[in-house]
């Protein structure tokens, strides 16, 4: 299917009226709607059509939820089949054929060592609900209340998840350094920086005067998404597994955004070969509909009946859509495809850096890609990396690039501590032609943004 150029902007009273009413009625906490003022009315695959008649290539994909893009035929068929069957749509945690099929398909994709001895808890509809469930599980099983989390993390918006993400005070959370090549917290970068981070973690946990509350678990993201698309080095991941096993600390892998083939493996922990004690899963596992679960070692299943619940944990349509999505990704080897196509896109984006000093770093894994934009003319910070002095991030340029992308029919997201990382999360069904169009439009948007007077205006936060 050919990738068409965006249609000319058409004035639409319906489009403008909907946006105006949204601004008047919805809370000030809304985020995506501020930087992406579009009104989607139709969508298929990677393409969204707005009420104004414009078409967009969607590299947001519901923050990674749409593994197969919008309205994929296998997802729609799975949903229709449940609806047409007359099966109940709301069943709390009762057993159903739909749930059994979903669980069977999910377990077939898990790391074998975990799947052979696993339990699953269906949680509330969002990933943050599953994070909270994981915390409750490990605290109940261990009798300890402390938690180890990492700088740059994002685990959700509920109280415990926010504390683990550094967004709320909690004396029970110990913050540890996350390896970062471009902005290494130790000024080293690369393997050396990862070794220092692992050494510091081990030292702090074993220091009787370190002040670390006895940890029930360590939670980490194999690739930090909201934190700026920071892939964890495989060797460092193995070190974290060793450290936690030696100290009987449960390891929680937050695969809410990295799972279901996104990074080039079905689950991102497979890159390093580790098997966590708990996996937190949401987003793509529901096939575009709300679904969140935790999967964990049976030895941790010490909950009493009713210890964790949620009214909408029996979402039959999401389970049907999720099972269809998991099977399609597995049968069509879309994880491998994401790895191959993602590597190709990373290479092209890195090549742009030769002509654009404002591209500080291009990083990612599979179809989870980030481009950090910097101000090369500003005074660099004192912390150095293996690449030398890294210029300061340029969130104003990133915001300008996002808007220029939108004008060219491309939807992208921003992330990182300073919102200076342009993020790409295209569906795994991305074609070669679409991948080329994404990079071309992004490059054109960057050129336009660099020529604009964006530095004279405050971009402000977009999330």
How does this structure look, described?
It is a single chain. A 7-stranded mixed β-sheet has the order 4-12-11-10-7-5-6, with helices on both faces. It is built from 14 helices and 19 strands. The protein is α/β, with parallel strands linked by helices. The chain folds into 2 domains: 13-23 and 37-71 and 334-456, Aspartate Aminotransferase, domain 1 (Alpha-Beta Complex); 74-331, Type I PLP-dependent aspartate aminotransferase-like (Major domain) (Aspartate Aminotransferase, domain 2, 3-Layer(aba) Sandwich). The protein is globular. Mean pLDDT is 90; it is low at 4-11, 383-387 and 456-463. Strand 5, helix 8 and strand 6 form a beta-alpha-beta unit. Helix 4 packs antiparallel against helix 11.
Characteristic terms for this protein:
single chain, 463 residues, alpha/beta, Aspartate Aminotransferase, domain 2, 2 domains, 4-stranded mixed β-sheet, globular, disordered C terminus, Dat, pyridoxal phosphate, EC 2.6.1.76, Aminotrans_3, Diaminobutyrate--2-oxoglutarate transaminase
Please identify the structural class as seen in this structure. alpha/beta
Number of domains: 2
Helical proportion?
25-40%
CATH topology of the largest domain: Aspartate Aminotransferase, domain 2
What's the gyration radius in Å? Answer: 22 Å
Per CATH, the superfamily of the largest domain is: Type I PLP-dependent aspartate aminotransferase-like (Major domain)
Give the CA-CA distance, first to last residue. Answer: 33 Å
How many extended strands? 19
Portion of residues in beta strands equals 15-25%
Biggest sheet: strands, sense, closure?
A: 7 strands, mixed
Strand order, largest beta sheet? 4-12-11-10-7-5-6
Low-confidence stretches: 4-11, 383-387, 456-463
CATH architectural designation of the largest domain: 3-Layer(aba) Sandwich
Q: What is the CATH class name of the largest domain?
A: Alpha Beta
Tally of separate helices: 14
Average pLDDT value? 90
Shape: globular
């Amino acid at each position: 299917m050919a990738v068409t150029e965006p249609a000319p902007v058409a004035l639409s009273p319906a489009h403008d009226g909907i946006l105006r009413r949204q601004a008047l009625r919805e809370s000030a906490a809304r985020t995506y709607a501020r930087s992406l003022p579009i009104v989607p009315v139709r969508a298929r695959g990677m393409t969204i059509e707005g009420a104004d008649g414009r078409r967009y290539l969607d590299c947001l994909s519901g923050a990674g939820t749409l593994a197969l893009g919008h309205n994929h035929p296998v997802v729609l068929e799975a949903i229709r089949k449940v609806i047409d069957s007359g099966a109940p749509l709301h069943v709390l945690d009762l057993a159903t054929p739909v749930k059994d099929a979903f669980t069977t398909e999910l377990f077939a994709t898990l790391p074998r060592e975990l799947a052979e001895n696993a339990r699953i808890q269906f949680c509330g509809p969002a990933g943050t609900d599953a994070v909270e469930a994981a915390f409750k599980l490990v605290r109940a099983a261990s009798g300890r209340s402390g938690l180890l989390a990492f700088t740059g993390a994002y685990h959700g918006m509920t109280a415990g998840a926010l504390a683990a993400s550094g967004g709320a005070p909690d004396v029970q959370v110990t913050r540890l350094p996350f390896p970062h090549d471009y902005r290494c917290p130790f000024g080293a970068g690369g393997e050396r920086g990862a070794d220092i981070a692992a050494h510091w973690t081990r030292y702090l946990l074993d220091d009787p005067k370190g002040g670390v509350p006895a940890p029930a678990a360590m939670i980490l993201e194999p690739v930090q998404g909201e934190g700026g698309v920071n892939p964890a080095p495989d060797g460092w991941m193995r070190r974290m597994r060793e450290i936690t096993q030696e100290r009987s600390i449960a390891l929680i892998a937050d695969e809410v955004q990295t799972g279901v083939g996104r990074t080039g493996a079905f689950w991102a922990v497979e890159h390093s070969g580790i098997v966590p004690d708990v996996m937190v899963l949401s987003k793509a596992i529901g096939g575009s509909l709300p679904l969140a679960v935790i999967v964990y070692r049976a030895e941790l299943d010490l909950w009493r009946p009713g210890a964790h619940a949620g009214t909408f944990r029996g979402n039959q349509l999401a389970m049907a859509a999720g099972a269809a999505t998991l099977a399609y990704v597995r049968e069509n080897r879309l994880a491998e495809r994401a790895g191959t196509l993602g590597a190709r896109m990373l290479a092209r984006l890195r090549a742009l850096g030769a002509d654009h000093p404002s591209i500080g770093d291009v990083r990612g894994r599979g179809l989870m890609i980030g481009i950090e934009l910097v101000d090369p003319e500003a005074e660099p910070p004192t912390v150095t990396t293996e690449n030398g002095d890294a210029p300061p991030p340029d969130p104003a340029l990133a915001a300008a690039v996002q808007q220029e992308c939108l004008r060219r029919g491309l939807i992208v997201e921003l992330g990182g501590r300073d919102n200076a990382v342009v993020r790409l999360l295209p569906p795994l069904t991305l074609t070669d032609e679409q991948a080329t169009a994404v990079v071309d439009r992004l490059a054109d948007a960057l050129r336009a943004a660099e020529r604009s007077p964006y530095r004279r205006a405050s971009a402000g936060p977009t999330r």
